[in-house]
């Protein structure tokens, strides 16, 4: 299993980088021009999230440096660390379903403090990457068609977030532990 | 919601710093945070520019439609109450294949169009239909093939192996999506079971009202 995951990590991106242009070329797409046209959007996207990310990074930075984060994390520390889970990761799990930029900012903060190749850094990367922001998806999708009663969709979304959080930690412990 | 979280983080931090007598850390933390926010975004430019270029190729070459075709048996299983040739099907497929490639910007408009089409099949226009709930479940869990943003951030912080998280992320996202689908099925069955019982009259039936004025 871990060997397979290793192979996927190493091969997924190179394979896509080679396969996508080849496929497009065979389909007679002007590959380079089409690539450049799409790439233009990347700059926009990165610049557009600056205000959001700055706002969230400021809030999380103040929260952490003031000692508030350590205080709240301290409660859960003994319990989680007995399971081999670093308690620093828990706030990320709480933020993830609620705010995409907020959790991205928090994951970035964890990566910068503990390093990208530490267990915490790897867990933060996996948790942040593995699900989407439940609250945002529900608001946008239901808002677009005027649905007010989402029935069980919030429950299902949050349930899958919890499962994804636990799965991320388990996979990292198994794979990098 | 987001307003409360944002303000709470700042205010709680402020109070903690004040109580502990190191209020000056708030200032430096705020400006450091702002700086990191900008640095991270600049670090994202390279990867996003490159990746969105690749994704444009996937779109222009019809690769997205190819993936949609591969997904269609799964989607038919997940959306049993949507007619096979209904336009909603096409949008659901595009939404899922865009999600798979990590094309958030393309996935959302497709998802919204799918919601609009599903709304035409929905008997109660203010409550989500079971098919809508399934679409929402798939999108909140959102299978991600390549977590591009996180790879870029890891590169920014000099990771020895920025892509080592691709496999673990894929494993975790598959588990989360399976959980979402299972939970969605469970609640859908519960909802439909309740619906099969003779409906308890709650207000006038909607079909009776149009004639009232005529």
From TrEMBL, chain A:
<feature type="transmembrane region" description="Helical">
    <location>
        <begin position="7"/>
        <end position="26"/>
    </location>
</feature>
<protein>
    <submittedName>
        <fullName>Spore maturation protein B</fullName>
    </submittedName>
</protein>
<keyword id="KW-0472">Membrane</keyword>
<feature type="domain" description="Nucleoside transporter/FeoB GTPase Gate">
    <location>
        <begin position="47"/>
        <end position="147"/>
    </location>
</feature>
<keyword id="KW-0812">Transmembrane</keyword>
<feature type="transmembrane region" description="Helical">
    <location>
        <begin position="156"/>
        <end position="176"/>
    </location>
</feature>
<dbReference type="InterPro" id="IPR011642">
    <property type="entry name" value="Gate_dom"/>
</dbReference>
<dbReference type="Pfam" id="PF07670">
    <property type="entry name" value="Gate"/>
</dbReference>
<keyword id="KW-1133">Transmembrane helix</keyword>
<dbReference type="InterPro" id="IPR052549">
    <property type="entry name" value="SpmB"/>
</dbReference>
<feature type="transmembrane region" description="Helical">
    <location>
        <begin position="46"/>
        <end position="65"/>
    </location>
</feature>
UniProtKB/TrEMBL annotation, chain B:
<feature type="region of interest" description="Disordered">
    <location>
        <begin position="193"/>
        <end position="214"/>
    </location>
</feature>
<keyword id="KW-0472">Membrane</keyword>
<feature type="transmembrane region" description="Helical">
    <location>
        <begin position="165"/>
        <end position="187"/>
    </location>
</feature>
<keyword id="KW-1133">Transmembrane helix</keyword>
<keyword id="KW-0812">Transmembrane</keyword>
<dbReference type="Pfam" id="PF07670">
    <property type="entry name" value="Gate"/>
</dbReference>
<feature type="transmembrane region" description="Helical">
    <location>
        <begin position="131"/>
        <end position="153"/>
    </location>
</feature>
<dbReference type="InterPro" id="IPR011642">
    <property type="entry name" value="Gate_dom"/>
</dbReference>
<feature type="compositionally biased region" description="Pro residues">
    <location>
        <begin position="198"/>
        <end position="208"/>
    </location>
</feature>
<protein>
    <submittedName>
        <fullName>Spore maturation protein A</fullName>
    </submittedName>
</protein>
<feature type="transmembrane region" description="Helical">
    <location>
        <begin position="37"/>
        <end position="58"/>
    </location>
</feature>
<feature type="domain" description="Nucleoside transporter/FeoB GTPase Gate">
    <location>
        <begin position="42"/>
        <end position="150"/>
    </location>
</feature>
